[in-house]
């Protein structure tokens, strides 16, 4: 069970860097924005994924439609207020994160590139688009038939497809990034991206597009599932800190079940099978708390990966209860939605009380990307000099060096 | 020293309780004791009576204690029983390795402390019968190992006492570690030394890492010992029956009860009316299989009760663990093949009861695959893993036949997902797969099982034999034929009981063909049905004949189950090394090399341990001189 991290967490940086670092440390001044810009990465969109799916869950649970058997009977004012609060909160967070991230794209583009080269980090590039699609779907006032919905869908779905082409192409063609080398549980996020797009397309009643996205996602899910289960490379593909990402194992089948539900119009046997698979994987992961012990030592942003798979499972169980009435399905749904709300609240509180830990100096994704960034800027362009002089990661690298010595 | 020796020797001669061997050793190697200083000896006594601290870092305290206790120990050593008989080679092994530690790091072995402490507490009680053999404890164990493995050539003839020693070898596999027997003999007034009681407990045998199984065993079923390996139990003698009774015996139940289902389907299906099969065949076969399940389960339950350690080792065996699904699958088969005259409807709760153990086993096994570690799929994949998949489909089939809705879909979904993973992995024949048979073996027939059962299960779930069922059925048929054309299957392999488990896929394919022919009824499907049913019946008959031959003529139906008795090699594990590093303080680099040399090869270890006791004591004297 001991799994070594493959990242150079404990290895001292090369000597060239250290000279650069010490020079930078000397002239460094503290600014919040460059700090955030350096520390932030696409993994932060896990927060908006969680919030977006939570909003969707409450939309489904609260909205009284004529055929809904699962909706909580509540006055209209009540549910629309709750929904609007949740939705606007997640929208604000998403806008904030997107702004910061696009700023990073402008000023620290090489770091984005390094993120793209990272085998875990690259999958989180799907997260912003998935979050936006979710916000779009859970919006309380726009219906899927509306023109703005269609336009926005295209805006958010096309980057997902472009990323798909790029990543799936890397998997099955030449190069160092073939699947067995890069596969890790976070890779399932690319599948989730396709399936969310398929679900939204099915809501717009664009059947062909949604089936296209669904089949694209499912075929690669199949390949990925087999590869991940085989675990050819042992356990070293995923740093121990990112273990919460294992929860994506059951997120993918849940979202597939939801997507198929939207496409076929009823929660039929394939949807049920996907939901049951998801449930089994959930049980299987819950039974192995030892797997997550290493990640649980200190709060970090990866913890947000616990939240949205549970919410997704709760969503699928809500649809399941709609199809199969009964005590068991009701119990499953209540349990899972309760758990998802609790986890989300807990994470929100932890995040609110630990703003420092929100920008950790030993983020596994950032660690490698920052090193790449540092190396690529030994001869700097003037504009970037300004930013990187003040950036905090020299401090971080220094710390890493100290860690390595101790 | 000498005088005490002489004082004791007449009694030794008269005593019938003393093993002649030890007498021989003490007689031969008295010279070793002569060279000892008194203080060294007292230290040796102290160490073997477990008085002193475990850690080498407190060496000073240790020495001080030696000073304090020397008087006491001098007075007591005449009365104390210090010989320790190892109950089993495992203990001997542990002590061997620990002894090496002890020699290097100048501390007492942790393991011996409770034992000798126990003997110390008995000082008062044992004064009368006490004998002083003047043998340091590890030495005794080593000698016994030498005796029992008959490696020393110049040993005196055995006496019955040693035979009894040999029987203790199985104790480490026993659930109660022979405690009960000792209590009984204590009641009889025959007091036995209690040294062994702690070391015998199963806790001593930690779970064997999966790599050990790969290192020590070979063969498609991982049941043959590699030439370089040694086992814990005597390999020249038949073990107790329960130890030889493997969990794969449940394969018989699988084979026979699936026949019962086939004959039930033949009797009841529309498309096979022309065969005029009597339902009585099903009735007879069903009763036979019930009897078999009861017998096998009872025997195995006895094994669980009496030799739990052996069961545990089977559970850790990367291939045997799949056979732990067999009993539950056999019960599902019994429920499926229940004669119509007997009962037509089963209560739904039965299904839940039967599926619960399967569910938990799956959580365990699939979880091991997914979460990596030593038992990840790319390492342990083997055709027998199909047994852990088939349970899902059989359960789905039974549940859907009973009219349940959601439960069968659940197991079908879980089974399908993991079947896909397993199928791809087995087809890839990854180089990391250490257990995949290199050549053909009957175990490959398990490939047929999952798709044929899945086709029936899906047909039951959907209500019709639709495209999904047909796809699964045709996959099964193709796999069956691709295996069937390779006819020289059963040649060149040692027969084992596990082969029974490989017949049920054939029967499953035959049943699926009956189902298919009742949807698509024409001459071809009817011929196919008859052929497949005949083949499966013939195979089962042939296997029955082979089993009877092996059971009653060759009498080797239950050979020694080598795979549960591989040695732990705990000295190779990093844990021990780490512990050793903690104790290392003060020892020189040459000692490190020394340690590594000994820990690397067992052979050397044994040789080293046969050296006269003076070896040991000289080291002790060296340590106390420091």
In short:
The complex is a heterodimer of chains A (406) and B (626). With 406 residues, chain A is mainly alpha-helical.
Describe this structure in words.
The complex is a heterodimer of chains A (406) and B (626). With 406 residues, chain A is mostly helical. Chain A has one domain (39-360): Glycosyltransferase (Alpha/alpha barrel). Chain A is built from 18 helices and no strands. Chain A has helices at residues 15-26, 32-39, 45-62, 76-107, 109-117, 127-138, 147-172, 179-182, 188-203, 207-230, 248-264, 269-286, 304-323, 327-353, 355-358, 364-376, 382-390, 393-405. In chain A, α3 (45-62) runs antiparallel to α14, α4 packs antiparallel against α6 (127-138) and α11 (248-264) runs parallel beside α13 (304-323). Chain A starts with 14 loop residues before the first helix and ends with a helix. Chain B is globular, with a radius of gyration of 30 Å. In chain B, a hairpin with a 5-residue loop joins β1 and β2 (224-225). Chain B is mainly alpha-helical. Chain B has 31 helices and 2 strands. In chain B, strands 1-2 form a two-stranded antiparallel sheet. Chain B has a domain at 230-567: Voltage-dependent anion channel (Glycosyltransferase). The A-B interface holds A 1, 3, 222, 225-226, 228-232, 234-235, 246, 249, 253, 269, 272-274, 276-277, 279-281, 283-285, 287-288, 291, 324, 328-329 and B 362-364, 366-367, 369-373, 376-378, 381, 405-406, 409-410, 412-414, 416-418, 420-421, 424-425, 430, 432, 461-462.
What count of helical segments of chain B does DSSP give?
A: 31
The CATH topology of the domain at 230-567 in chain B is given as Glycosyltransferase
Secondary-structure element order of chain A, N to C: HHHHHHHHHHHHHHHHHH
Query: What's the average pLDDT of chain A?
Result: 78
Total E-strand runs of chain B: 2
Biggest β-sheet strands, sense, barrel of chain A: none
Poorly predicted tracts of residues of chain B: 1-166, 190-205, 570-626
Mean pLDDT level of chain B: 68
Rg of chain B over CA atoms, rounded to whole Å, is 30 Å
Residues in helices of chain A, as a percent range: 55-70%
Q: In percent, how much strand structure appears in the residues of chain B?
A: under 5%
Question: Using CB atoms under 8 Å apart, which protein chain pair has the greatest interface?
Answer: A-B, 33 and 32 residues
Count of extended strands of chain A: 0
Distance between the termini of chain B: 24 Å
CATH level-four homologous superfamily name of chain A: Voltage-dependent anion channel
Morphology of chain B = globular
């Amino acid at each position: 069970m001991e799994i070594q991290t493959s990242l150079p967490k404990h290895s001292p940086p090369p000597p060239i860097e250290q000279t650069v670092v010490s020079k930078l440390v000397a002239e460094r001044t503290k600014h919040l924005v460059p700090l955030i810009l350096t520390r932030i990465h696409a993994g932060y969109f896990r927060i908006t994924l969680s919030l977006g799916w939570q909003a969707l869950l409450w939309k489904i649970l609260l909205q009284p439609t004529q055929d809904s058997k699962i909706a909580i009977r509540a006055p209209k004012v009540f549910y629309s207020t709750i929904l609007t609060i949740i939705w606007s909160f997640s929208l604000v967070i998403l806008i904030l994160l997107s702004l910061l991230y696009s700023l990073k794209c402008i000023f620290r583009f090489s770091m984005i590139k390094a993120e793209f080269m990272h085998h875990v980090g690259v999958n989180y590039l799907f997260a912003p688009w998935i979050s936006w699609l979710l916000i779009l779907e859970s919006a309380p006032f726009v219906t899927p038939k509306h023109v703005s919905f269609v336009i926005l869908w295209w805006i958010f779905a096309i980057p997902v497809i472009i990323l798909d082409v790029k990543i799936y192409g890397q998997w099955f063609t030449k190069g160092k990034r073939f699947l067995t080398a890069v596969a890790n549980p976070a890779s399932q996020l690319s599948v989730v991206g396709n399936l969310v797009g398929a679900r939204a397309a099915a809501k717009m009643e664009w059947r062909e597009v949604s089936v296209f996205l669904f089949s694209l996602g499912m075929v690669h899910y199949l390949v990925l599932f087999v590869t991940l289960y085989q675990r050819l490379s042992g356990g070293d593909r995923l740093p121990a800190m990112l273990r919460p990402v294992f929860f994506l194992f059951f997120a993918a089948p849940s979202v597939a079940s939801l997507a198929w539900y939207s496409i076929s119009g009823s929660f039929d046997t394939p949807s049920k099978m996907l939901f049951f698979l998801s449930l089994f994987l959930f049980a299987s992961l819950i039974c192995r708390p030892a797997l997550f012990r290493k990640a649980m030592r200190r709060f970090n942003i990866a913890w947000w990966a616990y939240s949205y798979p549970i919410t997704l499972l709760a969503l699928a169980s809500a649809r399941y209860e709609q199809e199969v009435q009964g005590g068991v399905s009701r119990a499953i749904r209540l349990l899972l939605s309760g758990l998802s709300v609790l986890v989300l609240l807990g994470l929100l509180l932890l995040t609110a009380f630990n703003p420092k830990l929100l920008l950790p100096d030993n983020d596994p994704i950032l660690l490698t990307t920052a090193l790449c960034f540092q190396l690529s800027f030994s001869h700097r362009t003037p504009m970037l000099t300004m930013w990187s002089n003040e950036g905090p990661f020299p401090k971080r690298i220094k710390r890493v060096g100290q860690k390595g010595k101790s | 020293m000498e005088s005490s020796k002489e004082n004791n020797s007449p009694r030794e001669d008269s005593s019938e309780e003393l093993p002649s061997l030890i007498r021989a050793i003490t007689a031969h190697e008295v010279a070793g004791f002569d060279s000892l200083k008194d203080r060294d000896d007292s230290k040796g006594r102290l160490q073997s009576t477990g008085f002193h601290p475990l850690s080498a870092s407190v060496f000073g305290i240790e020495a001080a204690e030696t000073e304090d206790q020397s008087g006491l120990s001098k007075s007591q050593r005449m009365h104390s029983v210090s010989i320790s008989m190892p109950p089993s080679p495992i203990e001997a092994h542990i002590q061997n390795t620990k002894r090496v530690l002890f020699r290097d790091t100048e501390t007492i072995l942790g393991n011996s402390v409770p034992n000798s402490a126990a003997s110390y507490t008995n000082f008062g009680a044992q004064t009368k019968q006490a004998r002083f053999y003047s043998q340091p404890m590890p030495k005794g164990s080593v000698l016994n190992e030498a005796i029992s493995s008959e490696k020393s050539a110049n040993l005196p003839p055995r006496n019955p006492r040693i035979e009894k020693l040999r029987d203790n070898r199985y104790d480490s596999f026993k659930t109660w570690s022979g405690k009960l027997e000792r209590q009984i003999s204590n009641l009889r007034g025959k007091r036995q030394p209690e040294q062994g009681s702690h070391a015998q407990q199963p806790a001593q045998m930690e779970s064997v890492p999966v790599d050990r199984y790969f290192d020590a065993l070979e063969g498609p079923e991982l049941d043959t010992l590699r030439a370089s390996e040694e086992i814990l139990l005597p390999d020249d003698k038949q073990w107790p029956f329960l130890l030889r009774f493997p969990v794969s015996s449940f394969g018989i139940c699988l084979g026979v009860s699936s026949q019962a289902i086939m004959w039930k389907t033949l009797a009841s299906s529309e498309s096979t009316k022309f065969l005029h099969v009597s339902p009585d065949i099903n009735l007879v076969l069903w009763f036979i299989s019930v009897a078999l399940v009861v017998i096998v389960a009872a025997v195995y339950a006895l094994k669980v009760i009496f030799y739990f350690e052996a069961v545990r080792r089977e559970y850790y065996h990367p291939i045997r663990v799949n056979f732990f699904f067999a009993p539950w699958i056999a019960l599902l088969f019994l429920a499926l093949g229940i004669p119509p005259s007997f009962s037509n409807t089963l209560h739904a709760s039965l299904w839940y009861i039967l599926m619960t153990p399967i569910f938990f086993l799956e959580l365990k096994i699939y979880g091991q695959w997914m979460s990596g570690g030593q038992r990840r799929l790319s390492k342990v994949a083997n055709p027998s893993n199909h047994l852990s998949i088939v349970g899902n489909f059989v359960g789905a089939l039974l549940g859907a036949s009973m009219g349940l809705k959601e439960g069968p879909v659940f197991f079908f979904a879980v089974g399908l997902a993991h079947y896909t993973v397993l199928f791809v992995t087995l087809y890839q024949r990854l180089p990391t797969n250490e257990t995949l048979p290199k050549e053909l073996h009957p175990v490959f027939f398990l490939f047929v099982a999952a798709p044929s059962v899945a086709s029936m299960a899906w047909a039951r779930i959907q209500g019709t034999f639709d495209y999904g069922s047909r796809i699964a059925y045709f996959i099964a048929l193709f796999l069956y034929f691709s295996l069937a054309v390779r006819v020289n299957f059963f040649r060149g392999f040692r027969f084992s009981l596990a082969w029974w488990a490989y017949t049920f896929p054939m029967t499953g394919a035959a049943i699926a063909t009956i189902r298919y022919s009742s949807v698509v009824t024409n001459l071809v499907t009817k011929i196919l049905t008859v052929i497949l049913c005949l083949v499966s019946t013939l195979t089962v008959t042939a296997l029955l004949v082979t089993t009877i031959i092996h059971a009653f003529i060759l009498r080797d139906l239950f050979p020694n189950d080598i795979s549960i008795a591989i040695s732990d090699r705990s000295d190779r594990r990093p844990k021990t090394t780490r512990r050793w590093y903690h104790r290392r303080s003060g020892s020189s680099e040459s000692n490190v090399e020394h340690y590594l040399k000994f820990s690397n090869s067992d052979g050397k270890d044994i040789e080293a341990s046969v050296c006269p006791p003076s070896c040991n004591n000289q080291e002790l004297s060296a340590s106390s001189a420091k």
